[in-house]
Design a protein that fits this description.
99 residues
């Protein structure tokens, strides 16, 4: 006879992770420090765990614009800095060489 399997044993960690990433999970919490009904500090914690595809589907794509996470965003930032510097240099040259 085969051993009966429990639902916990039948569902592996990979299956659970796949479900969470596919559907997404949100964990929310607030920490508030008050003295005499005066708010001194409020921390709002929001955690969303999902796949990149699910995040994109929900319109969340902040990592694409983060210069520390995206080489494209970093290149864009460097190009903007270069354009700003070129414009400043042209302005300085125009002031020093009046025609």
């Amino acid at each position: 006879m085969s051993e009966p399997t429990h639902s916990i044993n039948a569902t592996g960690l990979a299956d659970i992770l796949e479900r969470v990433l596919d559907k997404g999970i949100v964990i929310a919490g607030d920490i508030k420090i008050q003295i005499a009904d005066i708010d001194l500090l409020t921390i709002k914690i929001r955690l969303l765990v999902c796949s990149v595809d699910k995040a994109m589907e929900m319109g969340i794509n902040w990592w694409q614009e983060d210069t520390y996470l995206s080489t494209k965003a970093r290149e864009k930032e460097l190009m903007q800095q270069q354009e700003t510097l070129v414009a400043r240099l042209e302005k300085l040259e125009a002031k020093s060489n009046p025609s």
